[in-house]
Design goal:
The protein is α/β, with parallel strands linked by helices and about 425 residues long. It has 16 helices and 20 strands.
Amino acid sequence: MTIEQLHQLFLEFPQVCTDTRKISPDCIFFALKGDNFNGNSYAAEAIKKGASYAVVDEREFAVNSKTILVKDVLTTLQNLAKFHRNYCKAKVVALTGSNGKTTTKELITAVLSKKYKTIATKGNLNNHIGVPLTLLSITPDTEMAIVEMGANHPKEINFLCQLAMPDYGYITNFGKAHLEGFGSEEGVIKAKSELYDHLTTHGKSIFFNADDPIQKNKLGSVVEKYGYSQEDNQFFRIKLVSADPFVKIAVGNTIISTQLVGRYNFTNCCAAILMGQYFNVDLDKIKEGIENYAPQNNRSQIINKNGHHIILDAYNANPTSMTAALESFQQLKADHKIVFLGDMFELGKTAEKEHQEISDLVTNMNFDQVYLIGENFYKTKGYLNKYKSFDQLKETLKNSTLEHATILIKGSRGMALERILDIL
């Protein structure tokens, strides 16, 4: 079966599933493989549960007319997504970056959906499987598709661009993320810039932070670029009014009061405001979209519990985002501040150095109490409270009473520091 023929089948049954636990009626099941599973062995179950067809790549599982045998299921899924993207008329906005991708994506969606029929990446499904699934969620009436792209190795963003063929793009920032795969900050900049390289090559438009010297320098000669700035009048002016704790923004005489904490969320909002302005969304609708957005899933959430005022930012962490979170927390006006920091993952050979630098930074910030959790932080030099595991921290907290405080909780996803909420 050709991709064109498979696409015709997809138009008839426009739901795709890769997990038999989430089968929807009349979907097409793609039998993907992983390190510990073989989707082919679930094809019959998928059809039994209501899938119209199952795409497999092992002949023994192609047992009837409802199973479609292909050379490679993942490649077929990607090729189908690329074909469908080109078939549909939606404009595609791609975004990547070291920090803030998902929040920025959700803010852009909140703004553009005020005027356009908009779809966006669900959660953070932003890899070689997630991007195809997002593209396949585009419907005939979709006008804007916001596609988040993640990467931890060079050439990944370029590959995802080949699938999505974006009309517009935005990079949130360049930071110390996934250094294990990129090798260095320079490697991060080069890899994330694959999005801008692709857009420039194809004559497409770029949105950017004109106050970021890296982005401004890289895009110096690019014609189709649209930036925002706090000071430079040649770009769209957006000003940070305050962030204590919630970010407040001025666009001309309009004040936008967000539900987002931390100065680092200012630029995430700016991207959404800039795109709303570019795509002719009324400013009052831009304001409405951003003000109504509330973070979830452990991303800069504000939680009040047992007398504590908690900033829960435990979805992910790297040296850049952790530094930004600490600096923002330091600027908050509060009498009693406590910090919980968990290990940062995927730093490779730089892990020891980066954890020590964060330890030194937080030591000099003079918070009332600091707790470092994880094997990497445990190895750091200094006199802070250090715990090799979460269980060790748990025992300490169970046997102590914390005064009512303003608390920052920040760590990589694998540390699952939201568990601290259960024992405060």
